[in-house]
């Protein structure tokens, strides 16, 4: 076992034991200093008094790198959250995305691109029906959890961060020569912007319970499609742009302090896992646990 793997092994054990609160931690590889491992580890989060993931397959995962903390404490960016192989597998899963999925109301996306999605429960159900290899849906779950844990740790959250909606999405350029539109107009994820006044009202039909948002990108093999933060609710021009690439996670608090959008995807297909989180247990995504249960059942039966 190399160092990275033995390290992950120790954490694997640890996560299992933390789950049963108060239980003594066991094991650790011979010759390694546990305290040091914990100090150095990106995933010493969540602390013992918070809910832990049930089955967490650490071994496959690289250690992510926080590459940039902008001057804004409400924003983070991490690379290496997924390996190339994991991105490729999730891209394989995007073949099951459905056009327009996830938007009952008028979708905000441009007509000049095809928008497709697959939510976490539909992915698990497809595995149950034998349409999708279970490993792919499990990877979708694990990648989402890993993103959630990274965000909670980096934003130093003291209460649990719950999934509120999880969506594997792709935006594919159509054959349109001149584009002046955005792939996704500037918006906030929990309030409705009134462009005339610059007010962003945190009232229904906005998803007012969303506290944090994240996008985990699966590739950079397309043209256009940069994510950007706008200056403010009154100046929607890009302040800071981020180019998607495999394993890059962008995350931010979901309010008006982080107005954001996506530049036009002018060529190719841009896929990502879009994640929204809440601190309010009443708005916890029930479908996430349902997906986990289905996948657990599949594993137990097979
Ligand atoms: O895909 C992205 O980079 C951002 C998408 C977004 O902001 C959203 O779906 O609310
Ligand atoms: Fe958004």
Automatic annotation (TrEMBL):
Alphabetically ordered keywords of this record: Dioxygenase, Endoplasmic reticulum, Glycoprotein, Iron, Metal-binding, Oxidoreductase, Repeat, Signal
EC number(s) given by UniProt: 1.14.11.7
GO biological process: collagen metabolic process
Cofactors required: Fe cation; L-ascorbate
Top-tier EC class: oxidoreductase
All residue ranges annotated as the Fe2OG dioxygenase domain in the record: 162-279
Presence of keyword Acetylation: no
GO molecular function: iron ion binding; L-ascorbic acid binding; procollagen-proline 3-dioxygenase activity
InterPro entries, per database record: Oxoglu/Fe-dep_dioxygenase_dom, P3H, Pro_4_hyd_alph, Pro_4_hyd_alph_FE2OG_OXY
PANTHER family, alphabetized: LEPRECAN 1, PROCOLLAGEN-PROLINE 3-DIOXYGENASE
Protein family per UniProt: Belongs to the leprecan family.
Protein name: procollagen-proline 3-dioxygenase
């Amino acid at each position: 076992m190399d160092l990275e793997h033995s390290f992950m092994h120790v954490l694997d054990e640890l996560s299992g034991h933390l789950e049963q609160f108060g239980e003594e931690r066991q094991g650790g590889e011979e010759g390694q200093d546990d305290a040091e491992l914990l100090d150095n580890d990106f995933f010493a989060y969540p602390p013992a008094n918070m809910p832990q993931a049930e089955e967490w397959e650490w071994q496959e995962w690289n250690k992510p790198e926080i590459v940039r903390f902008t001057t804004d404490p409400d924003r983070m960016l991490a690379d290496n959250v997924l390996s190339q192989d994991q991105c490729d597998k999730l891209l394989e899963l995007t073949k099951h995305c459905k056009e327009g999925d996830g938007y009952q109301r008028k979708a905000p996306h441009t007509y000049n691109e095809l928008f497709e999605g697959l939510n976490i429960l539909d992915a698990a159900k497809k595995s149950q029906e034998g349409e999708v290899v279970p490993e792919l849906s499990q990877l979708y779950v694990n990648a989402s959890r890993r993103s959630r844990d990274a965000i909670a740790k980096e934003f130093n959250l003291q209460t649990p961060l719950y999934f509120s909606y999880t969506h594997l999405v792709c935006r594919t350029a159509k054959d349109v020569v001149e584009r002046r539109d955005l792939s996704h107009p500037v918006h906030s994820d929990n309030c409705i912007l009134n462009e005339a006044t610059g007010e962003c009202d945190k009232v229904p039909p906005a998803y007012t319970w969303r506290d944090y948002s994240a996008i985990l990108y699966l590739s950079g093999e397309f043209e256009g499609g940069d994510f950007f933060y706008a200056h403010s609710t009154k100046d929607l021009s890009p302040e800071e742009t981020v180019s998607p690439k495999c394993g890059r996670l962008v995350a931010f608090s979901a309010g008006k302090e982080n107005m954001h959008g996506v530049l036009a995807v002018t060529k190719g297909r841009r896929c990502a896992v879009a994640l929204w989180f809440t601190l309010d247990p009443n708005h916890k995504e029930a479908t996430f646990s349902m997906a986990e249960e289905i996948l657990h059942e599949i594993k137990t039966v097979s």
